[in-house]
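Hi W., the adenosine monophosphate complex you wanted:
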Amino acid sequence: MIVDYHTHSLASDGALSPSELLSRARASGVSKFAITDHDTTAGYLSVKDSDDARAVGLISGVELSCKWATASIHVVGLGFDALAPEMQAMIKTLTAARRARASKIASRLEKAGIAGAYDGAMALAGDSQIGRPHFAAWMVEAGAVGSVTEAFDKYLGAGKPGDVKMFWPSLAEVVSGITASGGIAVLAHPLKYRLTGMKLRALLNDFKASGGRAIEILNGRQTDVDSKRLLQLMESTDLIPSVGSDFHREFEYGPRLGIDVGRLPKGRYIWEALEAVL
Ligand code: AMP
Ligand code: MN
Ligand code: MN
Ligand code: MN
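Structure:
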């Protein structure tokens, strides 16, 4: 069985349209799938009733931004009612937060000598949920940097001027929003926040206390060391394991769409827990 519970489309910062993403998933033999765009369900809603959606076993999904202590955290929501008022309200809040944040990022970039970023990034984003990748793409286009990597390293990444997180709701709020909408909250890529072991355990405790139920033990391309660490972390909690490629676009060193569950350690996974809520 091939599954994927973490992917992005053009509705946020992915390169493929939602329907292109589904047809690629179908061609890869995926039978359980979620489109988890940053702070929007527009991509999912636009394809949920298609033939390909049925073929790949599409369920609702989203990757919500929030803050916990001083860190920006991502929580994936799965199997919720996309039209639930709590989910709609959350997405409305986050859409406004992303616009306010974009304006703050642009003013910080201006102070760093790069003018016109707001209009540039918003134009590139178009109808997509605006994010730092649109700023990075515009900076490359405008010649301010040589590559997207350079844009993140110098201006947008953790600790740089464009790393603005003051507009995000709290972890507890987004987890509650997902749960109230009938879904399961999954802590995305726990090792990407660069927290100490102690802080990471505190994050897991708070996540669980807020109603969080699962964690990603596999996200994108991951080293064996990281997988071991996540499995150990999971065993010390009673969180359910989830897996996803975090696919954004095709590139040589990037993750492929779809995860063959045959290569995962034995256990009870997210798809079993989802059966109870779907
Ligand atoms: P945002 O959602 O606006 O905070 O932007 C975060 C997104 O930027 C992530 O989901 C990744 O898709 C992308 N990203 C983060 N760091 C990098 C990086 N160093 N290089 C390229 N893309 C990145
Ligand atoms: Mn992204
Ligand atoms: Mn993420
Ligand atoms: Mn993601």
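The longest helix spans residues 85-111.

W.
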